[in-house]
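Q: Two folds, back to back.
A: First:
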Amino acid sequence: MKTKVKGIEIRNNIIKLRFSYQKKRYFKSLKLEANNKNLKLAEKILSEIKYDIATDNFNIKHHFPDLENEESISTDNRLDDLIKIYFQQKEPEIRATTLISYKSIISNFISQYNLYKEPNELTMIEITKIRIDMLKKYKSRTFNLHCIVINNFFTWLYDNDLISKRLKLKTIKNTEKTPTPFCLNELNKILGHASNLLN
């Protein structure tokens, strides 16, 4: 099920609201299953929130008593802060072992290139220079994996209005050859040789 209403998202079949208040972006789960009835309710709740914000009557704790446990994204957050929120949101969607690998890739990307800055300070020129350096460090398969993981993070930044333009690390053609399995004849020769060594 999909919704075309801006500010209402469906993740894992659960309705979630997205809105901004006092330079922070909030993602609030309504803990409601995504169906037509609940989507109409979500529209009503979001409309009330927007009205309260517009009329300066918004009390966030009144709407969300469990605010201290809620994810928020500030426009002042640096990239190293945002990756924590990014992976909090991705955790239900990714296997634990894969999540550890992805965290390592993005964290190393930020530390290696000293990207301790706000996302809107990133430029495509800077990303292009980083890509050139990455090409020197990694083989094609590893390079492409890093690009895909980092590009997913860039997409999340764009979708949450944290960058005004899409950023992307362009992947390359995989030049690494996959090892060719032994044919039956070669395997028999190897086994025969090993047998002679043991006798």
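A: Second:
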Amino acid sequence: MVKKKSKYRIDIGTTKCIYLKALPNVLQGVTSDIGWVLDNDGVPPAGRTIVAENRSDAIDKGMVPFRVTYNKNKRNQTATLLVAPDKADTVADELIGKSYGGGKISKVRAPRRSTFTV
């Protein structure tokens, strides 16, 4: 099991990007569906500027939180994923059945409380 977090880049529009850290073994089944790209060097592509590097700033800059329910070890668990704005309209349908955190996602919805984790 990987204990070290990796940097992921999320592109916002055509000139901005956000960098967040997460465990790669937890997210590996859903990264492309939520708009995250593994980018360990932390240098944005040419023509893009970094506008956020933490969760609260990422939400302020346009990331959309979604609450996922997944089944792990015969128990339902939940997590909040931050999704790129261009993927927000299709993520609810695409994530069902994908693997996350060692389990399969069974439900995707908007969060009811303001608790955010990645």
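Q: And?
A: Residues 35 and 84 are 5 Å apart (CA to CA).
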